[in-house]
């Protein structure tokens, strides 16, 4: 994962991935690279203040996780903010894998043959549309004696 991040962002990360990403700045830059403006404001270290305080780090990490949700990363693949802030690269790797390679997780054989589920608002509209069309069909049949 380190190489994927480094090549996409043209940066060199520290050897320890957990420590390199613990302040959340690089993670936010990564999601903005994948989908621009996913994180509108990123707290970044500066030469004057090379280390972010805990509040800014947490804000970056929470913004990253929220952007991942909006980009369709499944909740089960998301690590917690604590995992990132504590430098636990294990769970973070799973989140990065799901973010960088969506759909890479293997589907169960039953899920592969199931009809695709419609998103909430689209499913509601489809139900409404089918209902209205059915009522119109019934009215047409009643009027014309079919």
From TrEMBL:
Q: Does the keyword Transmembrane helix apply?
A: yes
InterPro entries to which the protein is assigned, alphabetical: CH_dom, CH_dom_sf
Q: Which PROSITE patterns match?
A: CH
Tell me where in this chain the Calponin-homology (CH) domain is found. Answer: 1-104
Membrane-spanning parts: 122-141
Q: Which UniProt keywords apply?
A: Membrane, Transmembrane, Transmembrane helix
Listed name of the protein: Calponin-homology (CH) domain-containing protein
- Protein source organism: Gopherus agassizii
């Amino acid at each position: 994962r380190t190489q994927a991040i480094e090549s996409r962002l043209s940066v060199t990360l520290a050897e320890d991935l957990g420590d390199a990403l613990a302040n959340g700045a690089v993670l936010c830059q990564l999601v903005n690279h994948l989908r621009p403006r996913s994180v509108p404001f990123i707290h970044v270290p500066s030469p004057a203040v090379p280390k972010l305080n805990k509040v800014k780090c947490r804000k970056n990490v929470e913004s990253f996780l929220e952007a991942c949700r909006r980009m369709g990363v499944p909740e089960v693949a998301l690590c917690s903010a604590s995992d990132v802030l504590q430098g636990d690269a294990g769970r973070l790797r799973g989140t990065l894998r799901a973010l960088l390679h969506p759909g890479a997780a293997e589907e169960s054989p039953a899920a592969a043959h199931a009809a695709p589920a419609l998103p909430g608002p689209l499913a509601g509209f489809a139900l409404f549309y089918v209902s209205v069309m059915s009522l119109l069909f019934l009215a047409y049949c009643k009027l014309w004696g079919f």
